[in-house]
Fold these 2 entries.
Entry 1:
Amino acid sequence: MDETLQRYAGYEIREREEVMCRYKIYLTLALLSVAVAANAAPSRVALVPGLPNPVFEGTPIDVRSPHREAYRGCDVPPKPLMVPAGTQLFSRGCRVSSSDRNVERKWFDLVTDGDKQYTQFAYLELAPGVQWVQIDLASNVFVEAVCIWRERPESIVYRDTVVQISDNPGFSKNVTTLFNNDYDNSAKRGKGSDKEYLEDYFGRRISGRGIKARYLRVYSNGSTSSPYNHFTEIEVYGSAVKTVPEKVQDSDSLGFRNPVVVQGATGSIVDRVETAVIVPGIYHDDLWVNPEFFITPDNPPGVELRIRSTDRRGLDQHTLWHYFKSDDLCGSLQPIDEGTATLWDRKDLVREDFSASSGLYAQLPEKLGHTDCAAFVYLDSATILQAFTTKKGKVYSIQSVAARIEGDKFVPLYISNSFSNSKGRGLYEPHIAVFRKRCYMTARCEDDHGYILTSDDRGRSWSKPRPWTWDDGEIIPMNQTMTKLLSHPEGLVLVYTRKREDNQSVFRNRSPLHCADIDPVTLTIKRSSERIIVPNKGNPIGNFWVWPVNENESWVTVTEWPRDGRRENGDTWLAKIFWK
């Protein structure tokens, strides 16, 4: 074995000592960075999994691929993966299953037995082709990290590595992909953007992002050395999901109770606002955000509400919807398995919802962006208007499409002009309202402003965007925030967050939530009419939803959204706006 080969393999004792020395330096630097940020909550530390000894037999193979990440070198450990303090190993000894039905069960135990050292009899081998191995953690866990060891005696790259977690054993729903380097979708799990990598004794460390799951699946499709699939050890790290106290799980704790009442301003179209928490954060164990609701045309009218699970890092890794119903205008809420209201079809429109028979169909973008932020509006009983975004590179532009309802399809009638902004991601999250036959569109931007546009021809053409200002002409400072419109026969109201002296410590100044009257002629906000409808409790709010209930009231719902990894959940609020 020549000197070059010895260095490649990390086989010399001296080089092993250097590896561990450098690894300790990495960990020391990571821990120092945590100490510097000690005022941040919660504290995060470097994950330190146990390591096997390096192995090497034979001549290194030159494995090249345009889809492989550059190898950092055998004597260079990977960058430490930071996890919350107190993160624990949950996979040791857990039950393992596989797509390969010809493997004896005793071999599955090798995947979670704690032995990461490669030998000829210490790894699981699965048949050629796309195969998966699955670990059952026995209960839900907030997954923080997944570590995989597949080191072989030769230089090797495993193909189509896909790592997924779910709370469903069949992975038929609620699936989150943590890693995917299947660049051509040959494994049929979706095209991935991660890179292939060389296996080594450090293993591969993948962030779990704090997502709640019980099951882990790892897919592969052979390797550069063999059509077979191998797994030496898989570890899953996280924190336990706390059981919600029975008295809190009881749906009697849900609903609109003991609201705080704020009176509208003199001359405002708002008579009063009543605000209360309808789903306390302690009711659920994972983080919920983005509440939405519709009023069902029952007698009396009913309500369907849904709130979505998400990650705790503010990465918008949304998963499961949680549904509720109410027969007393949210005085009480009852959990239900699925939504039944047909009104849910009024949002999340995609291109395929429109009729391809129309010549305008080809002009629609492949993806109608941000239709999840607002439902379409009716221009008349047979015509809808939907705001959407188009993305070029990283920049969004806003526009709208009008369409005729024809069966279960929408036939495009015209597509409007579009506008964007040179700052950040452009203009996005548009929301449309109609007031006295004039259309109004508000949009989010990243230049410290929100924007308003108008259309006098039913959304065929929109005016140039102008920033929201107070009625004295002063521009209202807004920090990358959603804005939404409420229409009433007597006027318009804007719902928004903005920069204030007392919310500088809140993420993007996203609390408190306000409403204020709009002057529909000057398109300005009447400063004296501003009212706080959801208070600032120290947490930012997430995306909010507005909807008319009847001629007397409209509602706004929003959930507080801690975005720094903390285990505390935000409350879901309902603000009932009563009109004069």
Note: The longest strand covers residues 131-149.
Entry 2:
Amino acid sequence: MSRVLTSTDRQQLADFLTRRLTEELGRLWARDRSRRGPEGRPGLASQVAVLDDLLGVLAAGRLPERHDLVVLLVGYRDHPDFDARWAHL
């Protein structure tokens, strides 16, 4: 069942996603620092670009496109700060 978000709901969701994606970005950089040399992280730049793009969408006051939003909601649904109301978007 799909539901309409109030502006407060949208802001809370955007804040939640911004915090989670920022944490993900930090983990990517930390893993990169620990794997320098021939065992480095191929594809790091594209991973960072995806997170950066999503953070840019959120910073512009928008939520990600539906497909991306669903993937994020599924991925973060077990996080303690996840609001169960978001599961039905």
Note: The mean pLDDT is 87.
